[in-house]
Every structure is written in structure tokens, then in C-alpha cells.
Write a structure and sequence with these properties.
Helix content is 40%, strand content 26%. It has ten helices and 13 strands. The protein is globular and about 60 Å long.
Length: 332
């Protein structure tokens, strides 16, 4: 029994990430149609705001996935090897959903090593503390990593003495377009051993009105999350964004089948970014895209699996079939 934490995000990695952050902002704001990726938002505070989103009652990806875990926890346990295995979670956050599985696995007498990975050091530290307080007297062992996904996987998944189950939950794969998802899955396949398992959450295509409600909440948490990107740029690059001069809105794009978040400038303004030695002009009501969440059909999900070295084991749906956690096996 052990509960520990390690960060792989120090030294040269941190310097490289700062450079990547600056270059990404420069490129995104220099485009004719400004666009910045959502990963820029995720430091400890950004991760905390995102956890607020997952607790919104109309945010169906989280609501549906909780339902799936409660309904199908024994089904998931039955698929896995009954000997010891390693449970790796990419983007673990606060681990609330995974606690449901851990409790079921331990109830079944399964020997588990849980390895949560998250870009946020604070999130992982808090999760390890929570797990130790809850499961300190059980056989569970926990090794939390603050790391990028594949840096963490490289440190964990090559041990062939245990089967791995990798969780990639919450429709996080939807942050990539279809080619981007294929690239991610090929990297994931390369990081794992034959007969390992993955479970990936996909938000399914549905009525655009349902999608609108899920990404435009009355409490303004989505706006808080997206506008935090401006705080991040101010902090890291010495910019002078004023959040009071921007608003956020989510829209469904039928051509890409993605919900896109946009930040709109409420006035004509110029923003200075000292670290880039540049100024960027925003016209009245000019948009800057900050997020996109792609929606999938079941046929697309199955094609993604088969084209990238996986065999589909089971699709687990919520009652409305709004969401699916798809379990795949690595074939090599």
C-alpha cells in the first residue's frame, strides 16, 4: 500500500512549455480569424474552473458518464483481468468518476495500481491525498504523475508484468478534430502493450439544442473558464487583456459537427503583449475561437478504433444514448 506523487514537468520541460505557450499565442492571434487552443487554459486554477463545469446539471457529458459508471461498473470489472492490473487515467482531474470504479474493483477483490496523470500538479496532489484518506486501509496503490499524457505513459505503461487499462474520459478526445483524434490514438497504441485495454469517452451527435444548453450555462462558468485564458496570457506573457471587454458564447457548427466556444470583443481595442513585443487589434464584436468539442457517430468511433490498431470490446451507453464509453483492446 502506497500513495505517492511525482512531477515530470520541471526543469527543461517547463522552459520548453513556456516557449510553446508563447509561440502558440503568437500564431493564434496573428491569424486572420483569431484562434487559440483550450490547452492554454489549464494550469491549476484553470483545472479547478473546469471541474466546476463538470458539475453543471446541463453538462450532459459529465452527467451521462456518471450514469454509465454507476450502471456498468460491474460490466467493466468483468472485462478486466482478475489478476493485478494498472489503471492509468489521462487527464484525471479530481477523479470523481474513477472513484466509482475503484470502489467496485476493490469490492471484487481486484489488485489495482492506479496511476492518475494530469497537466495540473495541484489537481494530482489533491487527488492523491483524497485517495489516501479514502482507501488508505485497502490494497490500492496510487502513483500520481503531473505530466503530459505521453510523458506519463512512457513512464508507466512499458511494464509488461501487468495489464493496463487506460481511461480517457469526459469527451476529452473531442477537443481534437477527426485527423487529430487519429494521430492521438496512433500514439496511444504505440505507448501500450498487446492485450492492454483503453476506455474512451465520446459525446455522440444529438439535437443541437441539447448541445447549446450543455455549453452555455446560466451561471457563467463556461465564460469564466474561457476568459481565464486572458488571465493566463497576462500572467505568462505580460499582456494587458481586460476581461471586462470580452464575452463568451458557445455555438454548434453543423459543418464540422463541433461545439465551438468564441470570445467576442465588446469594443474596438488593442492589446499589448510584452513578451512577444507585439500589439494585436480586436475589432468591435470580433471573435476569437478558444474551444471546440467534436461530436461523433457510433460508426465513426468504430472506424477510429479499427483504423488505429484497436479491437472494440464493448460500447457502454447512458439511457438516452447521448454519450458512450467505448472499451477497446490493443491488438499487436
Amino acid at each position: 500500500m502506497s500513495f505517492d506523487f511525482k512531477s515530470l514537468r520541471a526543469g527543461t520541460n517547463a522552459s520548453s512549455e513556456d516557449s510553446q505557450f508563447a509561440q502558440t499565442v503568437l500564431e493564434g492571434l496573428s491569424r486572420e480569424e483569431k484562434r487559440l487552443p483550450s490547452w492554454l487554459i489549464f494550469d491549476d486554477s484553470g483545472s479547478e474552473i473546469f471541474e466546476e463545469i463538470t458539475q453543471l446539471e446541463n453538462h450532459h457529458p459529465s452527467v451521462c458518464e456518471f450514469e454509465i459508471f454507476h450502471t456498468h461498473k460491474q460490466t467493466i470489472a468483468d472485462i478486466l483481468p482478475q489478476e493485478s492490473f494498472q489503471l492509468i487515467e489521462l487527464g484525471a482531474g479530481d477523479g470523481r468518476k474513477t472513484l466509482i470504479l475503484l470502489e467496485q474493483f476493490l469490492k471484487n477483490g481486484m489488485q489495482i495500481h492506479y496511476a492518475p496523470i494530469d497537466i495540473s500538479e495541484g489537481a494530482i496532489k489533491n487527488l492523491v491525498v483524497t485517495l489516501e484518506s479514502k482507501f488508505g486501509n485497502t490494497s490500492l496503490t496510487v502513483h500520481g504523475l503531473a505530466a503530459d499524457y505521453f510523458d506519463g505513459l512512457d513512464a508507466l505503461a512499458k511494464d509488461r508484468s501487468k495489464k493496463n487499462l487506460v481511461l480517457f474520459l469526459g469527451s476529452t478526445i473531442g477537443n481534437r478534430d477527426y485527423p487529430g483524434a487519429e494521430h492521438f490514438l496512433r500514439q496511444l497504441w504505440q505507448s501500450l502493450n498487446a492485450e492492454d485495454y483503453v476506455m474512451i469517452g465520446f459525446d455522440l451527435m444529438k439535437n443541437p439544442k441539447v448541445l447549446y444548453k450543455a455549453y452555455n450555462d446560466a451561471k457563467g462558468v463556461f465564460q469564466k473558464f474561457n476568459l481565464y485564458l486572458l488571465d493566463r496570457i497576462n500572467q505568462k506573457l505580460g499582456a494587458n487583456f481586460n476581461k471586462e471587454n470580452f464575452v463568451q458564447q458557445g455555438h454548434y457548427n453543423w459543418q464540422s459537427r463541433a461545439v465551438e466556444s468564441h470570445i467576442y470583443s465588446t469594443k474596438e481595442q488593442t492589446v499589448r503583449i510584452d513578451a512577444l513585443n507585439r500589439e494585436f487589434h480586436f475589432g468591435l464584436w470580433e471573435s476569437m475561437q478558444t474551444e471546440h468539442s467534436y461530436k461523433y457517430t457510433q460508426e465513426e468511433i468504430e472506424r477510429l478504433a479499427e483504423n488505429n490498431g484497436f479491437e472494440i470490446v464493448e460500447h457502454l451507453f447512458d439511457a438516452k444514448k447521448y454519450f458512450v464509453d467505448s472499451i477497446w483492446k490493443v491488438k499487436k
